Every structure is written in C-alpha cells, then in structure tokens.
C-alpha cells in the first residue's frame, strides 16, 4: 500500500485559481519576486523527466483570446532577479527564452510592454513530499515493513495578463518531480512548452 504525504506546502501564488465562475477575474498583482522556486532552483536541480509534467490551466471563459497578436514580459519578470529567493540567472533566462520561442512559433509578435496585447509572467514554488509504502509479510500479514522515500515536487506557473486591463486572464501550471538534470536547458524548454501548448485555450 502506498501513500504520498505533503509536509510543506508550496507558495500560495501557485495555488491561486481564477474566479471564473464567481464573478470577474481578479486584478493581477504582477509578481515582484520568485519565491522558493523549484527547490530554490539550484543549478543542478530542475524539472526532471519533463515528459511526465502534469499541466493544468485556468482562464476567463468569457474572454476573447483570438484578438491577441502581440506580447511582452511583465516588467517584474523581464529582468534577472537577485537576492536569496531568486533562481540562478541562467535559469531565469532559460525560462524567458523558452517562452519567447514558443509564443513566436505560435505567430505572436514580441513588442514593448506598453504596446503589448498581453504580458507574460512566471513564478512558482516547491513541495517537500514523502512517498510511504507499507508491505505486509509473514503468516496472515502479521508483520509490516515501511519504506519512506522523500522527494521534492516543483511547480512552474506561467501567467497571461491582459495588456489594456492588467488583469489575469489565463494561468498554466506545470508540476513535476524535482531532480538532478544533465540537460537543464532542454528540461526547462520541455516544461514551458508543455504549459504553453494549452495557450490559447480552445
């Protein structure tokens, strides 16, 4: 029998949902820093096995995404952050580069933030989890062996913010186990691609 337990939750930003069924989409306060991002995103700790990234999305069902033609980065996400909570510079640039390439491939044109139809922002978090496996053995299953395997689960969040209104209209969330990677650029690119594959919603 296997159980998975959370003993530390990710930042609330990664768990926020659009209130599409209860009224207007809330105004998006542009993320001002990246917090505890993917196990602090140490250079060797990235989303591993991106083929298994679990992606979910939420968006304003009343919004017309077909009018979008141009994009830019939210100013808070467009620059390299510094400080104890900021991911390494290379990781930040890889995320932005992968998202740029994906949106350009979809036919969007990058422009300056003031003129963009929509702005892109990223943030995320990490959960420390425990995988508990119990195995009964002996006559009538009298004895129980317990195996505890700790692991970390990283979350990458990409937000689409409407340019004219500055309101959050779409959110994509990718979740995967965090592990050591020998191909960090490719792994980040796969994770970003998996998320933006769902944008625009159909």
Description:
- The chain is an alpha+beta fold.
- It has a single domain (2-12, 33-196), classed as 2-Layer Sandwich (Double Stranded RNA Binding Domain).
- The protein has three helices and eight strands; from the N terminus they run ββββααββββα.
- Strands 1, 2, 3, 4, 5, 6, 7 and 8 form an eight-stranded mixed beta sheet that branches.
- The protein is elongated.
Instruction: Quickly give the CATH architecture.
Output: 2-Layer Sandwich
Task: Indicate the radius of gyration in whole angstroms.
Answer: 19 Å
Which fold name corresponds to the CATH topology?
Double Stranded RNA Binding Domain
Number of helices: 3
What is the helix fraction of residues, given as a range? 10-25%
Largest beta-sheet characterization: 8 strands, mixed
Shape: elongated
Number of domains: 1
Order of helices and strands: EEEEHHEEEEH
What's the CATH class label? Alpha Beta
Report the structural category.
Answer: alpha+beta
What is the terminal separation in angstroms?
39 Å
Portion of residues in beta strands equals 35-45%
Number of β-strand runs:
8
Mean pLDDT across residues: 75
Note poorly predicted spans: 5-46
């Amino acid at each position: 029998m296997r159980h998975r337990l959370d003993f530390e939750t990710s930042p609330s930003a990664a768990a926020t949902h659009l209130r599409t069924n209860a009224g207007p989409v809330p105004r998006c306060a542009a993320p001002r820093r990246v917090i505890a991002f993917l196990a602090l995103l140490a250079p060797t700790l990235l989303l591993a096995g991106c083929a298994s990234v679990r992606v979910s999305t939420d968006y304003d069902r009343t919004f017309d995404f077909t009018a979008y033609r141009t994009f830019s980065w939210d100013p808070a996400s467009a620059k390299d952050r510094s400080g104890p909570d900021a991911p390494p510079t290379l990781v930040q640039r890889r995320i932005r580069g992968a998202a740029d390439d994906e949106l350009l491939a979809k036919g969007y044109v990058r422009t300056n933030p003031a003129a963009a139809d929509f702005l892109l922002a990223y943030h995320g978090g990490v959960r420390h989890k425990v995988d508990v496996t119990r195995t009964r053995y002996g006559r009538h299953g009298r004895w129980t062996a317990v195996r505890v395997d700790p692991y970390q689960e990283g979350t990458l969040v990409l937000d689409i913010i409407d340019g004219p209104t500055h309101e959050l209209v779409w959110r994509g969330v990718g979740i995967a186990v965090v592990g050591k990677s020998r191909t960090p650029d490719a792994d980040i690119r796969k994770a970003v691609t998996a998320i933006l594959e769902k944008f625009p919603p159909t």
